Amino acid sequence: MRSIWLGVLAAFFFAFTFVLNRSMELSGGSWIWSASLRYLFMVPILVVIVMTQQKLKPLWKVMKEQPGTWLWWSFIGFGLFYAPLCFASAYSPGWLIAGTWQITIISGSLLVPLFAEVVQTENGPVKIRGKIPLQGLLMSLVILIGIIVMQVEQSQSISTQDFLFGILPVILASFAYPLGNRKMMEVCAGRLDAYQRVLGMTLASLPFWLLLSLYGVFSAGMPSKDQTIQSALVAVFSGVIATVLFFKATDQVRGNMQKLATVEATQSLEVLFALMGELIFLSIPMPSPLSWMGMFIVILGMILHSYVTHHKKTTQKIISKKIDPI
Among 83, 96, 100, 125, which is 20 to 30 Å from 298 by CA? Predict the structure, then answer.
């Protein structure tokens, strides 16, 4: 239960991302700087935190074991996650992106076969390839219906190109974030805490952010003071606080794909937090009844998903002779 509450808190702080990114876009800021500045600001903050805990050397030791792996999965988990989200903010309001982002619950379930769980048998621990949780996935489809309902009105008021630019990058990000996060959990194998892992992935993704920043200098010019300040706030609230909370939650259920899917389902609350933020700080128009219906369908899907996951009775009996180690 503690991991679920950590997930809810993470959703609250993650919502700042959608609100502030939309604010920067409306004030004329480039999505390139919204994306890269967040991670550039995160580096010194996380370095100080990890150094005060005297955990920097263990992090370097683990990163040096597989530097290429760290670079690749950090690029997937952070680069292909956040840059597309910022790009989409130029075409959709923050609450709508937050709602569409909940497709990550389905994406996370579809990624399960790429990972293996350790199971104790008479012959010792073996790894069993994960299976797609069909019951949980069925409940997740309710969330997909809610996303479609929310997008209906948006699709009718903008061009096809703008509609696709507002949704396709979010779908890409929805696969990249859980994939990169889970792969790095495998690499770390419990040797690093949440702060160390976030710092390690941030450092490993720096080449991508520096290249993107260089592109931003020539294509959009330097960021404004307001965008710099708001990017720093995103770095603190979403990049550090929310990410660490979410990583702690996933670490607590590491190795149990069912519970991991439940923790990821808590992120459905981002859509309500983001909407409240935009109503208060950006004075956006109140969403239509159809959009409200879509939002509540998303939340209902999250509740159903969690219910099915927690009340599913596991009756599997594992016979060691029928299990082939991977």
Answer: 83
- Give 286-318 as a DSSP string: PPPHHHHHHHHHHHHHHHHHHHHHHH-------
- Delimit the domains of the chain by residue range: 2-313
With CA atoms as reference, report the closest residue to 245 among 270, 220, 221, 216.
270
Contact yes or no for 135/203 (Cβ under 8 A): no
Q: Which residue has the tokens 């290429």?
A: 68
Q: For 111-124, how does the pLDDT look when each residue is reduced to its tens digit (9 = 90+)? A: 888 886 656 666 66
Q: State the residue for tokens 């060691």.
A: 320
Which residue type is seen at 143? I
Arithmetic mean of pLDDT, 185-204: 91
- What are the distances in angstroms from CA 40 to CA 59, 202, 268? 19, 8, 27
Bridge partners of residue 128, in order along the sequence: 117
Segment 307-319 shows an average pLDDT of 48
Q: Give the residue from 298, 46, 284 showing the smallest Cα distance to 150.
A: 298
Residue 60: CB atoms within 10 Å: 11
**Reported pTM:** 0.84
Quick check: 31 and 86 in contact, CB under 8 A?
Answer: yes
Q: Is 223 helix (H, G, I), strand (E, B) or coil?
A: coil
Nearest C-alpha neighbor of 309 from the set 109, 150, 37, 35: 109
Q: What gap in Å lies between CA 135 and CA 162, rounded to an integer? A: 34
**Residue 314 vs residues 59, 108, 291, 309, 322: alpha-carbon distances, Å:** 37, 21, 37, 10, 18
